Amino acid sequence: MLGGVLNNLRNPRPSVIEEANEDDLVNLADIHREGFAHGWSDGELAKLMANENYFCLVARKKGKADKPPSAFIMVRTAADEAEVITIATKKSARGKGVGRQLLEAAIRKLQGDRIASLFLEVDEKNAAAIHLYRKLGFKKVGERQGYYSSQDTENPSMALVMQRDLG
User: Fold this and answer.
1) Rounded to whole angstroms, what are the CA distances from 96 to 8, 62, 66, 122?
2) Distance, CA of 144 to CA of 142 (rounded, Å)
3) Rounded to whole angstroms, how far apart are CA atoms 134 and 129?
């Protein structure tokens, strides 16, 4: 019994993962703007969510189903491949395993849909995300020079293209 309690303290699962809905759009746009230099509006997110090749999962605190999401992931599928379009977490929820929980839920969904591989792009400077992706089995398969703009517009950072087999 104590081992299970200690394991939960080391690996908290503070969120419930579910499909996003229209009521979440304003909050998702706020979360995205908090995490990215060029955040998406609720209208842009609505257009993506309306496309049948996209799905969006949100994380909410357990027991807080009526509360706004603390993070979300949007994924696009095409044939037997998928791509993480974005994953974003509120600053107050970062470092608590929510991003991992979302990514694991998306992977399970894709495996159930018989998707063979999942791709994503990550800023080379985002060490925490790269560490998470490697722990979840992603491998670097390419690079995109000067992909991410930042405040240092003369030296945009490189995107690492990563892939994980889902079979």
Assistant:
1) 12, 13, 20, 19
2) 7
3) 9
Q: Which two tokens stand for residue 52?
A: 């049948």
pLDDT at 6 over 70: no
Instruction: Quote the pLDDT of residue 114.
Output: 97
Q: Which residues lie below 8 Å from residue 10, measured CB to CB, with a gap of 6+?
A: none
Q: What share of the chain is helix, strand, coil (3-state, %, to 5)?
A: 35, 35, 30
Of the candidates 134, 138, 154, the residue with the CA atom closest to the CA atom of residue 146: 154
Using only C-alpha atoms, the chain has a radius of gyration, in whole angstroms, of: 16
Model-level pTM?
A: 0.86
pLDDT at position 123, please?
Answer: 92
Read off the pLDDT of residues 93-123 as tens digits, 9 standing for 90 and up.
998 999 999 999 999 999 999 999 999 999 9
Q: Token match 């949007």: residue?
A: 74
| Superfamily the domain 13-165 falls into | Gcn5-related N-acetyltransferase (GNAT) (3.40.630.30)
